[in-house]
Amino acid sequence: MNASSNDRIEREILLKAPRAKVWNALTDAESFGQWFGVKFQGQRFVPGQVTQGYITYPGYEHLLMQVVVQQLQPQRLFSFHWHPYAVDQDKDYSQEEPTLVEFILDEAEGGTLLRVIESGFDKVPAARREEAFRMNSGGWDEQIGNIQRYVE
């Protein structure tokens, strides 16, 4: 399922892996970084705190990714706020309303059902909303494949 509206991106995949393994891939910062393409060395995801690291994807290594963890409901929900497609180093995104990224896990026959939802694009400034939505939509397609390869 690959649903999208103007405000949210949704992706869903059945991962042929135990829920605990998927949870660890999502919520252990170093594991997350390995499949997502960011170096969170020695950091942990803690609700209310900023976790940051440099992107490792070729051509984007100069970009610092920052997330503010919202929720960690063991083996069920991991969520964070971030600024979508914040790639202009000369721009200060801190005054923008961030989007919310949620990873939701459910038991499923044959593995773990993972849903990824990024919402709040309607609050991204109009001048960059369409591009941020388009780039993150394609990015989530790629990241779903990355986590699948990582856990399976």
TrEMBL record:
The organism's place on the tree of life at top rank: Bacteria
One Pfam family linked to the record: AHSA1
Signal sequence segment: none
CDD domains, sorted: SRPBCC_CalC_Aha1-like_5
Residues annotated as domain Activator of Hsp90 ATPase homologue 1/2-like C-terminal: 16-152
Family: Belongs to the AHA1 family.
Name this protein carries in UniProt: SRPBCC family protein
